From TrEMBL:
InterPro entries: His_Pase_superF_clade-1, His_PPase_superfam. Residues 22-31, 46-75 have a biased composition (Low complexity). This is Histidine phosphatase family protein. Residues 22-75, 100-126 are annotated as: Disordered. Residues 32-45 have a biased composition (Pro residues). Gene3D superfamilies: Phosphoglycerate mutase-like. Residues 1-22 form the signal peptide. Pfam families: His_Phos_1. CDD domains: HP_PGM_like.
Length: 247
């Protein structure tokens, strides 16, 4: 009886799934991945701004990058090409008187009395003769020769060119009572006046007058070559450069 009951129980156990396999060991769920922070996209570069003071400012011809005017190159040195043009005539030559006596002064000159004036030195007389010799050697045709009434300008003209007609328009502007503005205007008119055909006009005067009328500085004996109406000289011939000019 007991063995029958035991047998029945064993069968029932088999039918009910007794002795089923043990559940597989639980596996831990994978830990959630740590989120990787997103790399921010590179920011677009901000548009570059330039302060007005740092901008490149276009400069006018003849001006420095700072906007300051630069000195001009000045008249060219004379050359053989200039000599050829002078031979055709049509120019105005402004000649500052040649070397004068440094020890003389003439604050109140009497134009009728050379003793009251600063006159040419012996060196100045030699320079004037050399200018004349060069002009003749180079066959430069000279027409009208005008000179300031001062003795040193008339003598320069006579020694260099063999002639001189006085012109009060060329008088030294430091002469007592002289009108600086009027003299400058008169000189500009003379520089603009066209010579007779085939010759050049010569004006023999002072450094002050040239500076006032044109802004040019000069040394004693300098010659400036002007094209009438152009305003600026095309060449400057130093007193010692005449002897080296070639035909």
């Amino acid at each position: 009886m007991r063995s029958s009951l035991a047998l029945l129980a064993a069968c029932a156990c088999l039918l009910a799934g007794c002795g089923a396999q043990a559940s597989p060991p639980a596996t831990s769920a994978p830990a959630p991945a740590t989120p990787v922070p997103a790399t921010p996209a590179p920011a677009s570069p901000a548009p570059q701004t330039t302060s007005p003071s740092a901008e490149a400012t276009p400069t006018a011809p003849g001006a420095s990058p700072t906007g300051q005017a630069t000195a001009g190159a000045g008249p060219a040195t004379a050359d053989a090409g200039l000599v050829a043009r002078l031979r055709r005539g049509g120019y105005v030559l402004y000649v500052r008187h040649t070397a004068s006596e440094a020890t003389q002064d003439d604050p109140t000159p009497d134009l009728a009395d050379p003793a009251t004036q600063r006159n040419l030195s012996e060196e100045g007389r030699a320079q004037a003769r050399e200018i004349g010799q060069a002009v003749r050697r180079l066959r430069i045709p000279i027409g009208q020769v005008l000179a300031s009434p001062y003795r040193r300008t008339r003598e320069t003209a006579e020694l260099a060119f063999g002639q001189a007609r006085e012109s009060r328009d060329l008088i030294n502007e430091v002469y007592p009572g002289a009108d600086d503005a009027a003299l400058a205007a008169a000189l500009r008119r003379l520089l603009d006046a066209r010579p007779a055909a085939g010759v050049n006009t010569v004006l023999v005067s002072h450094g002050f007058n040239l500076a006032r009328a044109t802004g040019l500085s000069s040394a004693e004996g300098d010659t400036f070559v002007f094209v009438p109406g152009d305003g600026d000289p095309v060449a400057r011939i130093g007193v010692d450069e005449w002897r080296s000019l070639k035909e």
